[in-house]
Specification:
Strand content: 15-25%
Oligomer: single chain
Shape: globular
Structural class: alpha+beta
Length: 281
C-alpha cells in the first residue's frame, strides 16, 4: 500500500504546505475589517503565524488552549490532528510523603492515562498497566529536564496527562500539553520542551505520524528538545535506521519540534495579552 501518492498526498489527505497555507490565508479575516477592534490585530497575526508553522513538511494541524481545568494550578488542552490530550499541573506544594522529600530540589511526579473511549478498542485497560507506567516515566524525565527544580526544594509538582482521543503521536502531544500546563501554572523552566515524531515509510521521511502510518511497521523516532539550546531531552526509536536516513528523519523531527515551540510561544503571548486586557478593565 502507498503511504505517499505520486502527487504528494499522505493517507490522511495532508497536502503540500504551499496549498494549505494559501487556503488558510483566504479564510482569515481581512485586515481592514479588524484593524479598529482592540486586540484582534494581535490575534490576526498569531493566526497567520500559526498557519505558516502548523504545516512544516506535512505536520498535522495543532491547537493549544490554556485553562482547561479550572481547579488546577495550571492546565492545558493540546491537539495534534485527531490526537487530543488534556494536562493538569498541581504545585509546587508540600510533599505528601515526607520520605520522598528531596532537600535540594522539587519532586516531580507524572501520571499518564488513556480514556477508555480514546481509541476504537473498547477493552477496559487496567490503571497502571506497563505501557502507561513507561510513558509516565518518559514524560516525567522529559519535563524534569526543563523545570528549574532547584528553585523549589522540599516541594512537589504533580503532572497529570490524559489522552482523550488517540491517533498517533500521543507521547509528543502529552509532552506539549504538559509544557503548556507548566507555563500556565507559572513553574520556572529553562525553556519550553516540545516533542514531535518522524518516521520512514516506503523510502520517504514523514513528519508527525498518525496511527495508521505509525502502525505500518516502519521505523519512527520520537524526539523532545529544548529549542533555544537544541538540547535533546527525549529520543526514542523502535527500529534501526541507516545513518544517512536517521539524520534526515532527525532533522525533520527537530523542525517539527521548533515549529511547535513557536506555536506554543504564540499561545502564551496571546494569553498574556488577554490577561493584561482584563486587568486593565
Amino acid at each position: 500500500m502507498e503511504f505517499v501518492t505520486p502527487e504528494g498526498f499522505r493517507v490522511d489527505g495532508r497536502r503540500p504546505m504551499e496549498e494549505i497555507v494559501e487556503e488558510r490565508e483566504e479564510r482569515l479575516i481581512p485586515w481592514s475589517s479588524i484593524v479598529n477592534e482592540f486586540g484582534t490585530v494581535v490575534r490576526y497575526m498569531a493566526e497567520l503565524i500559526r498557519t505558516l508553522l502548523n504545516f512544516v513538511d506535512g505536520m498535522r494541524q495543532i491547537r493549544g488552549e490554556l485553562g482547561a481545568v479550572a481547579k488546577a494550578d495550571g492546565s492545558a488542552f493540546f491537539e495534534m490532528g485527531n490526537t487530543k490530550v488534556i494536562a493538569a499541573v498541581y504545585g509546587p506544594r508540600e510533599v505528601d510523603n515526607r520520605s520522598q522529600q528531596i532537600s535540594d530540589k522539587a519532586l516531580v511526579r507524572c501520571e499518564y492515562t488513556m480514556a477508555n473511549f480514546s481509541t476504537g478498542d473498547r477493552v477496559r485497560k487496567p490503571k497502571g498497566d506497563r505501557r502507561s507506567t513507561e510513558i509516565s516515566l518518559v514524560i516525567r524525565q522529559t519535563m524534569e529536564a526543563c523545570i528549574l527544580t532547584h528553585l523549589m526544594p522540599r516541594s512537589q509538582i504533580d503532572i497529570f496527562v490524559q489522552v482523550l482521543q488517540a491517533d498517533g503521536g500521543t507521547r509528543s502531544a502529552c509532552i506539549n500539553a504538559a509544557t503548556l500546563a507548566l507555563a500556565d501554572a507559572g513553574i520556572p523552566m529553562h525553556d519550553l520542551v516540545t516533542s514531535c515524531s518522524a518516521g520512514y515509510l516506503h523510502n520517504t521521511p514523514l513528519l508527525d505520524l498518525n496511527y495508521f502510518e505509525d502502525s505500518a511497521g516502519g521505523p519512527d523516532v520520537t524526539l523532545g528538545i529544548l529549542p533555544k539550546s537544541d538540547k535533546v531531552t527525549l529520543l526514542q526509536m523502535d527500529a534501526k535506521l541507516p545513518m544517512d536516513v536517521f539524520e534526515n528523519v532527525m532533522q525533520l523531527a527537530i523542525e517539527g519540534c521548533k515549529a511547535i515551540a513557536n506555536y506554543i510561544r504564540e499561545v502564551l503571548l496571546e494569553n498574556t495579552k488577554k490577561l493584561e486586557h482584563l486587568r486593565g478593565q
